[in-house]
Design a protein that fits this description.
This protein is of the alpha+beta class and 477 residues long. Helices cover 35% and strands 21% of the residues. It starts with a helix and ends in an 18-residue tail after the last helix. Helix 7 runs antiparallel to helix 9 (292-308) and helix 12 (356-370) packs antiparallel against helix 13. A seven-stranded antiparallel beta sheet has the order 15-12-14-13-17-18-16, with helices on both faces. A five-stranded antiparallel beta sheet has the order 5-6-10-8-9, with helices on both faces. A four-stranded mixed beta sheet has the order 1-2-4-3, with helices on both faces. Bound molecules: flavin-adenine dinucleotide.
């Protein structure tokens, strides 16, 4: 890197901001869970999408790595640079304009740095919403959501980020600008090259703009909390509510008993809505753009049928917004409660929905055979097969972090193998980052990996885009 590199960046354009103070550098070089840290030459914040082309060109010339960063809410190490300090963090946060909302076309054109919740606040003024819903929505950005192919609570009905995207604009690591920004649901454009940026975790290029599919804001909403004796019963309930409500089922989450106890220990105010002991809680949500009464009646009929069939033992429907929030707060406290209350090894695997009971049973049994003090956690999106299974240890069970890390490796290997054997995949919505590079190399077919390397070397021949992530095991450029 030439000595005047940092000075040359802001000289590229008056709208580029360069930040080198130690506090800001540290914040941008540490990810959400604080476990992944790195070093950067500077934080660079473009003010116009055209700035990104110039920044990437200069970085290519200088051999400096570019780590695109959105809200920095991902937790597998993908959003922070490596320790070598030969990178810039390219923060998209100033590219945060909603460029237009076309109500008849039901689309929005946005810059990559728009925060998901800000977009939905604006869309609500027009009776619309963008139906990707994450616990991090107050901070994460559309560009980050695309780069991670984010999922969340509504995948069951609306799919992942990829399913809600009509086009992108970006700059690849080879310097090429790419735009597919026509707001069309049908278009023959040859190779959909922009699709390569979905789930690419910043390793191919920088996403600068996107065209998003919108939905009308639901007018009717019902949220229910139910108790079930087993995952099989929960899946029978899933089938029954789908029979009655079809597409109106928006979320179907489950939480096992130990996970609810850990949450209650963390925050006693987050009480289980059903007082008696039971194994699996189901949190289901139903929405409709038409009448509240009709939706409520259909949900009540479905839950009555599930009660009668013995699939659930109790059901509560949220009486108001505050109760709905209380239900969801329990679900959304999982991550923080596990981090605070003990040592937890949690996973982001998916299996076909029909295989969820076998997956949970095998993980519980096989992990405990190896670690007798382990206790089995589960909380997740059962409706789409992405249940976050985990293993919980009391803090007293380990002498220290190194000891726990060794156990984590052994548990991960077991869980990934079980998921794979059941036709599943070890990673679903939290990405690969640096944390899961090794299982990615293990479980991706060799010919798929070879094709990915062909694409990587064509679109980022110098390897400057977010080095060391996904399948790149080198430390950094
Ligand atoms: C409380 C909490 C709950 C969460 N729940 C969910 C959930 O339910 N579902 C889910 O999918 N995720 C979830 N996440 C993970 C995370 O919020 C998502 O992955 C989110 O999409 C990341 O967006 P971001 O803007 O923060 O991206 P960052 O964390 O900044 O970056 C993520 C990756 O994308 C790349 N990137 C970012 N912006 C760009 C860009 N413009 N161009 C190219 N590459 C870019 C980065 O280099 C990095 O590799 C959760 C996180 C938290 C903290």
């Amino acid at each position: 890197v030439t000595s005047d590199f940092a000075i040359r960046i802001p000289a590229l354009s008056p709208t580029i901001e360069l930040i080198v103070d130690a506090d800001t550098l540290r914040r941008h070089c540490t990810d959400y869970n604080g476990r992944n840290t790195g070093q950067a030459l500077a934080i660079v914040r473009p003010g116009e999408t055209g700035d990104v082309v110039k920044i990437v060109a200069l970085c290519r010339q200088e051999g400096v790595a570019v780590v695109p960063q959105g809200g920095n809410t991902s937790d597998y190490g993908g959003s922070v640079p490596a320790a070598t300090g030969r990178s810039i963090v390219l923060s998209l946060s100033r590219l945060n304009r909603i460029l237009d909302i076309d109500l008849t076309n039901n689309t929005a054109r946005v810059e990559a740095g728009v925060v998901l919740a800000d977009l939905n606040r604006k869309l609500a003024e027009h009776d619309r919403w963008f139906p990707v819903s994450l616990g991090s929505e107050g901070t994460c950005q559309i560009g980050g959501n695309i780069a991670m192919n984010a999922g969340g609570n509504t995948v069951l009905r609306y799919g992942m980020m990829r399913d809600n995207l009509l086009g992108v604009e970006g700059v690849f690591g080879n310097g090429d600008h790419y735009a597919d920004m026509q707001p069309l649901r049908k278009k023959c454009i040859g190779y959909h090259i922009g699709d390569l940026l979905v789930g690419s975790e910043g390793t191919l290029g920088v996403i600068t703009k996107a065209i998003l599919k919108l939905q009308h804001l639901p007018k009717a909403l019902v949220t229910a909390w139910m108790s079930a004796a087993s995952l099989n019963d929960a899946l029978q309930t899933l089938d029954m509510v789908r029979q009655h409500l079809g597409e109106r089922l928006t979320a179907f989450e489950v939480i096992n008993q130990l996970q609810r106890r850990v949450i209650e220990r963390y925050q006693p105010a987050l009480k289980d809505p059903i007082a008696q002991d039971y194994e699996w809680a189901i949190l289901a949500e139903f929405t409709d753009t038409a009448g509240q009464e009709a939706l409520s009646a259909s949900v009540e009929a479905a839950l009555a049928a599930a009660l009668e069939a013995g699939a659930i033992s109790d059901a509560l429907i949220a009486a108001n917004g505050a109760q709905r929030q209380a239900f969801w707060r329990i679900r959304e406290s999982v991550l923080d409660a596990n981090n605070a209350m003990g040592w937890a090894v949690t996973h982001d695997a998916s299996v076909p929905v029909s295989k969820l009971p076998a997956f949970a049973e095998r993980v519980d049994k096989e992990v405990r055979a190896q670690f007798p003090t382990a206790r089995f956690l589960a909380a997740g999106h059962a409706g789409d097969g992405n249940i976050h299974l985990g293993v919980f240890f009391e803090k007293a069970d380990f002498d220290g972090l190194a000891d726990f890390k060794r156990a984590t490796q052994a548990i991960n290997a077991q869980v990934f193998q079980i998921a794979h054997a059941l036709g599943g995949h070890f990673s679903s919505e939290h990405g690969i980052g640096t944390k899961h590079r090794m299982p990615f190399l293990t479980y991706t077919p060799a010919s798929n990996l070879a094709l990915m390397r062909v694409l990587k070397s064509a679109l980022d021949p110098q390897g400057i885009m977010n080095p060391g992530k996904i399948f790149d095991t080198a430390e950094a450029v």
